[in-house]
C-alpha cells in the first residue's frame, strides 16, 4: 500500500491573520482560498511540495457540531489545546528568527530535547501549537 499525507486541517479564528502567519512568517504558498456562507477555507503548503497541504478551516464549519461543542472548541482554541502540527526544517534557528520577527507567540525557543530532537514551539494566531524540529 502506498499512502501519503495529502492534507491536514487546522482551525482558524481569523482567516486573514492565519493567512499572514502561514504565508508571510512560514513562507508557505497559498493554494486555495474559498469562502462559503460567511466562512473561509485557506489551503497552504510548503513551496516545492505540491502534494502536502494544510487546510485552515473555520472550527465550526461542520453542520453537525452542537452549540456545546462550539463553546468547547472555542475554549480549547483560546487555551491553545485544540490542535497542532509538527514541521521540520534544515535551519531551525533561521526559521525561529523569522517567526519571532513576525510576532509569532513563542512557546519554546530552539532547544535540544532529552528525547533527541532539537526543536522550538510557537502558536499560530488561532492558538494552534506549531512545533518545528530540526532535521538531523
Quick tags:
single chain, 136 residues, alpha/beta, 4-stranded mixed sheet, 3 helices, 8 strands, 25% helix, 38% strand
Describe the structure.
The chain is α/β, with parallel strands linked by helices. It is 25% helix and 38% strand. It is built from 3 helices and 8 strands; from the N terminus they run βαβββαβαβββ. The chain has helices at 15-25, 67-79, 92-101; strands spanning 7-11, 29-36, 39-45, 53-57, 84-89, 105-112, 118-123, 129-134. A 4-stranded mixed beta sheet has the order 1-4-3-2, with helices on one face. The chain has a 4-stranded mixed beta sheet with strand order 5-8-7-6, covered by helices on one side. A hairpin with a 5-residue loop joins β6 (105-112) and β7 (118-123).
Question: Brief description of this entry?
Answer:
With 136 residues, the protein is an alpha/beta fold.
Topology diagram in text:
Elements: E1 7-11, H1 15-25, E2 29-36, E3 39-45, E4 53-57, H2 67-79, E5 84-89, H3 92-101, E6 105-112, E7 118-123, E8 129-134
Parallel strand pairs: 1-4, 5-8
Antiparallel strand pairs: 2-3, 3-4, 6-7, 7-8
Amino acid at each position: 500500500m502506498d499512502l501519503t499525507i495529502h492534507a491536514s486541517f487546522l482551525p482558524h479564528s481569523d482567516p486573514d491573520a492565519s493567512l499572514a502567519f502561514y504565508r508571510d512568517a512560514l513562507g508557505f504558498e497559498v493554494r486555495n482560498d474559498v469562502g462559503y456562507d460567511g466562512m473561509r477555507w485557506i489551503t497552504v503548503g510548503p513551496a516545492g511540495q505540491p502534494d502536502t497541504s494544510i487546510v485552515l478551516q473555520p472550527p465550526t464549519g461542520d453542520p453537525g457540531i452542537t452549540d456545546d461543542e462550539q463553546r468547547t472548541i472555542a475554549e480549547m482554541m483560546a487555551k491553545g489545546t485544540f490542535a497542532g502540527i509538527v514541521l521540520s526544517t534544515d535551519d531551525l534557528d533561521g526559521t525561529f528568527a523569522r517567526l519571532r520577527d513576525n510576532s509569532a507567540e513563542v512557546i519554546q525557543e530552539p532547544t535540544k530535547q532529552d528525547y533527541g530532537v532539537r526543536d522550538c514551539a510557537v502558536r499560530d494566531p488561532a492558538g494552534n501549537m506549531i512545533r518545528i524540529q530540526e532535521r538531523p
